[in-house]
Design brief:
Blueprint: H1 2-7, H2 11-41, H3 47-75, H4 77-80, H5 86-90
Helix pairs in contact: 2-3
C-alpha cells in the first residue's frame, strides 16, 4: 500500500482487480466456514487442515480491512466506495 501512495498509481487501472479480490473473499469466507462445519459435523479426516486454514482466512480479512482503509486514505471515500465493500472500511472506523 505504501508503494501506491509513492508511485501515484491510478485507481482506475486497479479497480477491477481490487473489486475481484474483495468480492472473492466475500464468497470464500462463508464457503470455508460452511466446509469447516461440514468437516466437523461429518467427522471427516480434514479437521486439522480446516483448523490450520482458519487463522489464514482471518488474516486475509484483516489484511483486506487494512488495505481498504489505506486505499480510502490515498484515493478518498468517493473514489473507492464502488470498489471496496463498505463493511471492510467500516470495520476500521
Amino acid at each position: 500500500m505504501q508503494e501506491l501512495s509513492n508511485d501515484g498509481a491510478e485507481l482506475k487501472n486497479m479497480s477491477e482487480f481490487l473489486s475481484i479480490i474483495y468480492h472473492d473473499n466475500e464468497i470464500a469466507h462463508p464457503t470455508f466456514r460452511a466446509w469447516k462445519r461440514a468437516v466437523e459435523w461429518m467427522n471427516l479426516p480434514y479437521l486439522e487442515s480446516a483448523r490450520n486454514l482458519e487463522p489464514l482466512f482471518q488474516e486475509i480479512k484483516t489484511n483486506l480491512e487494512h488495505s481498504a482503509a489505506e486505499l480510502e486514505r490515498i484515493y478518498g471515500a468517493k473514489q473507492t466506495k464502488y470498489i471496496i465493500p463498505s463493511f471492510y472500511i467500516s470495520a476500521l472506523r
